């Protein structure tokens, strides 16, 4: 599928004749994913105070598929950040709107959202964003289009009156006539949003729209390798009626964003990314953060073996779809001995070996190099009883630049007793490799307590799966674990962050959510209580000091 697209990209890049107009994309679109190339690189722009701005310096980014410079991202310098600092500082703590101020903005944002849905329902517009995602964060077309679809359906959920219903509060009777308490969802005002590379559209759009609905003004920073996608979507939102001053976008390196935040002091920050950066932000901003950081995600296969082909397919998807570059990817598989006897290892191996670069079911790894992944595999293989199930080899016959990783989908078997033998072993095995990499182990009925011990010793509690229709087994596992988004049943999975349920970690008061009204209210608003006490004062009132 994508090999023909690559050939088309190369052909069009040489001729330079295909235009956005020819592709029936609206005038809002600036970038054509089909023509990005060394001779026609994209040059994104910052957005601040409602104006698109260039920068003095740029970061030259290589095409993940062939190494050609195809994108020159603004390398915003510290001496260029004053407008961003001023923009955030200009936002009052009461926000751009709240239940008592500028309530018409709730309706306006519902209208903007409706218009955006209309655009994304156009096949050519959806395809435009899917192709743009593929160019900067290569993944199969189905995975890229899935990201666009989830974004569209999320927006469908918040059209019309839905933004103001997010601000719904409550009232309680008072102690006497004229007194009543009212609870409100109140914005933070100036906020920051930092998003990773792996979902260039879905994560930043769902979070920034939530921020807007609740009355905040967000400064958005997306990983500079993929931030062009969010910029393009912002241009669409402007065409759909969003005020250009409602959102600022800062391209470039994380250090510059950090300096803006240090000076502007946003009242809250949503961060999605690595645990190391998450903890640093929490410290620097005195806990005023919501986090969706690391995701070393486990799957437990129960004793009941059924629907074998489906379960094997889901295991492959969970570990290797989008080349494993999902915070919800299956990192470790606890396989009951019954599944081992049924041949699950071999099924996983066979499916993994079918993945290829031609259709991008395996693709460049943007945050780990080939050497780093293979080195980690070798460390695991030094553990007694460890062995390769599949992969642990570099991809061949490609032009992926060395700055990115290129490895075959990998599964390493490590005995359960070795995983738990020492803290050193445990930390090695539970190191999150953000790529097509998983650890598989096996357990018996008598060893379930050891499996649960391993799950609870992990520090990241994002997603998990319990694959079983044995209700007592499932309920026992659920009652002794904590992961925030847990799928159970024979169709249980670790991946899949659609818009129809909460997605986020658990067990941390800083844990963020995404996708639902509850997530939006939690992350992008705070509780305010107003007690109205109008009187009348009792006619027999006497002023007595106490």
Summary keywords:
546 residues; 7-stranded mixed β-sheet; 19 helices; 19 strands
Description:
This protein has 546 residues and is α/β, with parallel strands linked by helices. The termini are far apart. The chain has helices at 2-15, 82-89, 104-120, 123-136, 141-156, 162-166, 202-213, 227-239, 254-264, 275-284, 308-320, 337-342, 344-352, 370-381, 416-419, 423-429, 448-457, 471-479, 517-524, and strands at 46-48, 51-53, 58-62, 69-74, 170-173, 179-186, 190-195, 217-222, 248-249, 268-272, 289-292, 297-301, 330-336, 387-390, 410-413, 437-443, 463-467, 485-488, 526-533. The strands form five sheets. The chain has a seven-stranded mixed sheet with strand order 14-15-16-13-12-17-18, with helices on both faces. A five-stranded parallel sheet has the order 9-8-7-10-11, sandwiched between helices. The longest helix is centred in the N-terminal third of the chain and has 17 residues, at 104-120. The chain contains 19 helices and 19 strands. The model is unreliable at 1-22 (pLDDT under 50).
């Amino acid at each position: 599928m994508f090999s023909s697209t690559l050939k088309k990209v190369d052909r069009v890049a040489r001729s330079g004749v295909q235009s956005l107009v020819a592709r029936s994309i609206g005038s809002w679109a600036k970038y054509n994913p089909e023509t990005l190339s060394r001779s026609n690189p994209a040059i994104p722009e910052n957005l601040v105070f409602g104006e698109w701005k260039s920068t003095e310096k740029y970061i030259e980014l290589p095409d993940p598929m062939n190494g050609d410079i195809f994108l020159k991202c603004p390398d915003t310098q510290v001496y260029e950040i004053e407008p961003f600092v001023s923009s955030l500082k200009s936002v009052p703590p009461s926000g751009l709107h709240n239940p008592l101020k500028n309530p018409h903005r709730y309706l306006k944002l519902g209208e903007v959202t409706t218009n955006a849905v209309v655009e994304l329902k156009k096949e050519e517009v959806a395809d435009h964003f899917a192709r743009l995602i593929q160019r900067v964060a290569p993944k199969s077309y189905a995975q890229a289009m899935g990201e666009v679809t989830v974004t569209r359906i999320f927006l469908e959920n918040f059209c019309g009156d839905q933004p103001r219903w997010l601000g719904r509060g409550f009232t309680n009777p008072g102690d006497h006539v004229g007194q009543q308490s009212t609870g409100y969802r109140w914005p933070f005002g100036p906020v920051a949003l930092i998003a990773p590379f792996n979902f260039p559209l879905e994560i930043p759009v769902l979070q920034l729209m939530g921020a807007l609905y609740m009355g905040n003004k967000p400064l958005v920073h997306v990983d500079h390798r993929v931030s062009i996608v969010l910029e393009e979507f912002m241009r669409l939102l402007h065409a759909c009626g969003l005020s250009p001053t409602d959102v600022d976008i800062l391209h470039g390196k994380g250090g510059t964003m950090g300096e803006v935040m240090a000076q502007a002091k946003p009242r809250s920050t949503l961060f999605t990314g690595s645990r190391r950066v998450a903890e640093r932000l929490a410290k620097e901003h005195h806990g005023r953060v919501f986090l969706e950081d690391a995701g070393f995600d486990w799957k437990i296969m129960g004793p009941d073996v059924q629907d074998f082909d489906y379960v094997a397919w889901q295991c492959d998807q969970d570990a290797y779809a989008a080349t494993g570059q999902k915070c919800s990817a299956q990192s470790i598989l606890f396989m009951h001995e019954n599944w081992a006897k049924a041949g699950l290892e071999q099924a996983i191996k066979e499916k993994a070996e079918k993945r290829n670069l031609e259709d991008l079911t395996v693709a460049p790894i943007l945050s780990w190099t080939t050497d780093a992944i293979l080195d980690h595999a070798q460390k695991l293989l030094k553990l007694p009883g460890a062995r390769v199930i599949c992969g642990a080899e570099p991809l061949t016959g490609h032009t992926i630049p060395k700055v990115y990783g290129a490895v075959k989908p990998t599964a390493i078997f490590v005995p359960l007793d070795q995983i738990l033998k020492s803290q050193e072993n445990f930390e090695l095995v539970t190191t999150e490799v953000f790529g097509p990499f998983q650890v598989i182990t096996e357990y018996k009925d008598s060893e379930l307590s050891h499996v649960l011990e391993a799950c609870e010793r992990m520090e990241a509690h994002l997603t998990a799966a319990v694959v079983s229709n044995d209700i007592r087994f499932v309920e026992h596992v659920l009652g002794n674990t904590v992961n925030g988004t847990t799928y159970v049943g024979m169709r249980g999975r670790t991946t899949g962050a659609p818009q129809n349920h909460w997605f986020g970690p658990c067990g941390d008061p800083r844990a963020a959510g995404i996708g639902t009204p509850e997530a939006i209210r939690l992350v992008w608003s705070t509780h305010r209580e107003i007690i109205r006490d109008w009187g009348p004062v009792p006619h027999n009132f006497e002023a007595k000091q106490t």
